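Students often ask why inverse folding is considered easier than folding. One informal answer: many sequences map to the same fold, so there is more than one right answer. In these notes we will look at a single instance of the problem. The structure comes first.
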C-alpha cells in the first residue's frame, strides 16, 4: 500500500513547528556572539564559547532519533511528544538567556537551548519521511525550508525592529544585554511554543500498524537496546550517508564560522564600529578589573571617557542591529529559493546533486565578497542573499537524498546519526579550527568569512562523490544501490 500524497496545507501544517525552531536558531545565530561580546568575551574566544551547541547536538540527536523511532503515544503519536518537550525546554532557555550576567552563564544556557531545540528538530526531519511518499519528499523538505526562511528573516530582524519601530532601547550599561535583545528572546519563546502546538494539533501521525503496511516499510528486525542500535548504525552507515557527510562537513563548518564571527567581523570591517573595551575607559583596580560604585555602575576615568565609551558602544549596537537584520536576508532568500523549488518539485523531479552543487557555489561567493566591501553595508544584502541560496539547499537537498536511501523504520535514528556530520565540523571549528584558519590569512575577523566561502566551495565540489541514482533524482523505477 502506498502512502497517500498530501496537499500543500497538510505539509505546511506538519512543518509549521519549524517556524519556532528557527526562531530559536536565528536568535542564537544572529545575537549570541553579541551577547558574549557584551559580557566581556574577546572575539577569538567566541567560537570556543559556542562549543556547547554542537556538543549538545552530538549527544542528543541520535538518542532522540532512536527514542522517537520507538515511541508511540496513544494521543501524541510517535514524533509529537518530542516536539512538545523540546518546545517547553527551549522556550524557558530563550526567556532566561538575555538576562545572563556572566559569560559562563550565557554559555551554559546556550547548551540547554541547543539541546532542547534538537529534541524538537530531529523528529521533525523524520516526520517528513513518515508522512510523505518518496515522490513528495523533496517537496516536503523544501516546504520545511520555506518556513525556516520565514523564521530566520523575522527573528534576525527583531532587535532592530523593536528599537527602530517601538523605540525599545538597544543600549545598556557595560556588561548588560540591551532591552531590545531581551524582548526579542521573549517573543522567540512565545513563537516557539505556539508554532509547535499548531503542528501538534493539526497533524495526525500514522500508527505503527499503518507504517508497517506501507510499501516502503522495511522488514522488522530483532529488537536491540538503544546503545547497541546506535552503535550498530554508526558501524553500518550506508555509503550515501558517508558521502553526504563530506558535503555536510564543509557546509556546516562554513555556517558555524558565520554564526560565531559574523557580528564581530562585520561590525569591525564593514561598519568600522567594533565593540569597545570598557577597560580602556574605566578606572581599574590592581588586578586590572573595572571598578564599580555603590550602585554597581562602572567608574569611568572622567566624563570625557564615559562619553567616548557611550558613543562607541552606541555605534557598535547600531551596527550589530544592522548586521542581524542583514543576516536575516539569508533567511529571506532561502525562503524565495525554497518557494521556487516547492512549486517545481510539486510536479517535477529535480537533479538534487546539481541543485546542491550550484547553490553551495553561490553561497561561497557571497561569503568571499564580504572582504571587498568595507564601508558599504548595502552590499551585504547581495552577500547574504547568495548565502541564503546555499542555506536553503543545505536544509533540504541532503535530507531528501538521504531519505531516499534509508529504511523507514530507522528514519529518526538515521537522521540523528546523519547530524553527526553537522556537529563534528562545528566542534572542530569551535576548538580553534576557524580561528586558526582565518589567522593564516590575517588577524582580522573578516577572514573568518573568507574561510566560510572557501569551505562552501569545497562542499560544492564534494557533491561529485555522490553517484547513487535514487538519491540524486527520484524515479520510481530506480532501486536502491
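Output (designed amino acids):
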Amino acid at each position: 500500500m502506498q502512502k497517500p500524497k498530501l496537499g500543500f496545507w497538510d505539509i505546511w501544517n506538519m512543518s509549521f513547528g519549524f517556524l519556532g525552531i528557527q526562531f530559536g536558531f536565528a536568535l542564537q545565530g544572529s545575537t549570541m556572539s553579541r551577547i558574549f561580546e557584551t559580557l566581556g568575551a574577546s572575539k577569538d574566544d567566541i567560537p570556543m564559547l559556542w562549543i556547547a551547541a554542537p556538543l549538545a547536538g552530538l549527544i542528543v540527536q541520535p538518542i532522540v532519533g532512536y527514542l522517537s523511532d520507538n515511541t508511540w503515544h496513544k494521543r501524541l503519536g510517535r514524533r509529537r511528544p518530542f516536539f512538545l518537550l523540546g518546545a517547553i525546554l527551549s522556550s524557558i532557555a530563550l526567556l532566561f538567556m538575555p538576562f545572563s550576567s556572566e559569560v559562563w552563564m550565557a554559555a551554559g544556557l546556550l547548551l540547554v537551548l541547543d539541546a532542547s531545540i534538537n529534541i524538537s528538530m530531529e523528529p521533525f526531519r523524520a516526520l517528513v519521511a513518515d508522512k510523505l511518499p518518496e515522490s513528495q519528499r523533496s517537496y516536503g523538505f523544501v516546504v520545511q525550508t520555506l518556513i525556516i526562511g520565514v523564521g530566520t528573516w523575522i527573528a534576525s530582524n527583531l532587535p532592530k525592529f523593536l528599537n527602530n519601530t517601538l523605540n525599545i532601547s538597544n543600549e545598556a550599561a557595560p556588561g548588560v544585554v540591551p532591552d531590545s535583545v531581551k524582548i526579542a528572546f521573549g517573543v522567540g519563546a512565545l513563537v516557539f511554543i505556539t508554532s509547535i502546538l499548531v503542528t501538534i494539533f493539526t497533524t495526525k501521525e500514522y500508527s505503527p500498524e499503518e507504517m508497517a503496511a506501507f510499501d516502503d516499510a522495511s522488514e522488522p528486525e530483532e529488537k536491540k537496546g538503544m546503545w547497541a542500535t546506535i552503535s550498530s548504525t554508526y558501524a553500518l552507515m550506508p555509503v550515501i550517508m558517508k558521502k553526504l557527510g563530506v558535503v555536510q562537513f564543509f557546509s556546516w563548518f562554513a555556517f558555524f564560522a558565520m554564526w560565531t564571527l559574523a557580528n564581530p567581523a562585520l561590525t569591525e570591517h564593514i561598519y568600522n564600529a567594533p565593540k569597545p573595551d570598557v577597560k580602556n575607559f574605566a578606572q581599574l583596580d590592581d588586578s586590572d578589573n573595572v571598578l564599580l560604585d555603590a550602585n554597581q555602575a562602572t567608574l569611568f576615568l572622567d566624563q570625557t571617557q564615559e562619553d567616548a565609551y557611550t558613543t562607541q558602544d552606541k555605534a557598535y549596537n547600531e551596527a550589530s542591529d544592522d548586521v542581524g537584520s542583514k543576516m536575516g536576508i539569508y533567511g529571506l532568500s532561502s525562503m524565495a529559493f525554497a518557494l521556487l523549488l516547492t512549486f517545481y518539485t510539486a510536479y517535477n523531479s529535480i537533479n538534487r546533486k546539481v541543485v546542491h552543487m550550484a547553490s553551495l557555489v553561490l553561497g561561497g561567493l557571497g561569503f568571499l565578497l564580504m572582504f571587498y566591501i568595507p564601508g558599504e553595508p548595502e552590499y551585504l544584502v547581495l552577500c547574504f542573499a547568495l548565502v541564503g541560496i546555499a542555506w536553503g539547499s543545505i536544509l533540504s537537498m541532503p535530507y531528501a537524498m538521504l531519505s531516499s536511501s534509508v529504511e523507514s523504520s530507522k528514519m529518526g535514528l538515521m537522521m540523528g546519526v546523519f547530524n553527526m556530520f553537522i556537529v563534528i565540523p562545528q566542534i572542530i571549528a569551535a576548538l580553534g579550527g576557524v580561528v586558526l584558519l582565518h589567522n593564516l590569512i590575517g588577524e582580522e575577523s573578516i577572514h573568518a568569512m573568507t574561510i566560510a566561502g572557501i569551505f562552501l566551495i569545497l562542499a560544492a565540489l564534494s557533491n561529485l562523490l555522490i553517484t547513487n541514482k535514487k538519491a540524486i533524482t527520484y524515479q520510481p523505477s530506480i532501486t536502491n544501490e
